[in-house]
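Cross-posted from the bioinformatics board.
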Amino acid sequence: MKLPINPGTVPPDSGPLPCSDTKPVGAADFYFAINATFRFVLRKLGADGLRRYWMEMGTHYFAPVTARWRSGGAPAIAAHWRAFFAAEPGAEVEVSQTAEVVTLDVKVCPAIKHLREHGREIVPCFCQHCHFISEAIAGPAGFTVRVSGGNGSCRQTFHRRDAQVPAQDLAQIAEVTC
Amino acid sequence: MLGCYDFCGHYDWTFEWLRQQGGEPLVRAYWDEAIHRDSQAHARDLILQNGIAGMKEYWGHTLDHEAAGYAITATDHAFRVDMHDCPSKGFLIRNGLAQYRDYCDHCIGWIGPLMKEAGFVIDHEHNHCGQCWWEMRRTDDATPPSAKGGLSGGQDVRLRSDWKRSGTLDVFQRATDVDDKSAAGPA
C-alpha cells in the first residue's frame, strides 16, 4: 500500500506546518474542489466511505502532523493551528492553549465563507470533516478533539486522551445550510 | 480542517486513495464529475459560452491567483498556455510529495471532457517537472500544433534548456481524454 507517506518523524528545523509554499496564503478557489470532493465521495461511496476518506487522510497524509503533536504536545497543536489559519484566506480564528487543552474559536470559517460568497451548494455534513480528520491526527499523538457548532463558526477543543471527556456527539456539529 | 494552502498535497493523495477504492475509472470519474462539472463549474460556463475568449478570462484569473509562472497566447483560432513554473506540481516537488502515478494527468482529466463538450481538441505535453504547454483548437480545425516558438515566440516552454530534463515527455495529440496519452517517450 502506497498511502502512508511519512514514517512520522519530525525533520529538524521544520516549522509548525509540514508543508510550505512560496505564497503566504492559499488560493481560496480550492475550497470549491474540497467541497466537490466530499460530494463526489459521498455520492460514490456513501457516508461510511466519506468518513473513511477523512480518517485515512488524517492517518496517512497528515502523519507528519501527528508526529509533531506527539513530540510537542499542546504547544505544538496550538502552533500548528495558528500557522494553519494564518495561511487560509479569510479565516478569523482565536487559538488558546493551556498545558492540557487547546481551543480553536473559529469565528469565521474561511471555507464556508468563500463557498457562500460564490453561491456554491455546500455538502450538508461538510463541518464533520474537521472532527474526523483531526481525531485521526490527534489520536495517535495522545489527544482527542471535540467539535461544537459549525455552519460558518465553531469551537474545536483538543484534550489529552486520558482526560475522559465525553465522546463526540455528531449532533453537536451543525449541518451546513446554504 | 482541510485547507487550501496545502491543497495540492491532499489533492494528489486523494487521487491515489480513489484509485485504491475503485481503480482508474473512479479517478477519471472524479476529475470529470467533481472537478470539471462541480468545482470548476465557473470555468465550464465561461468556456462553453465564450470559447477562446472564455479560456482567456478563466486562465488569466486562475493562474494569476495561484501565482503561476506562465504565458498565455490567444489568436482567433487557437489558445495556448506555456507553463514555466506550475504552482501545483511545484508545491509537490518542493515538499517531496508524490502519491498518484502522474499528478499532471489531472489537468487533462478535467479539461479534456470540458473541451470535448465545448467543441475543441487539445495538443499538450508535460515533462513532470512543473512545465507543460497546451494548444486548444476547434475540433474541425485540422491545424497541427505549432512548431517551437511559432505561436508564443520566446515564451514557448519548449525553448527552455531544461524542458527535457525529466527524460520522458507525456504527449497528447488532438486529445479530449486523459487516456488519449501517447506512449510516453524519451524527451
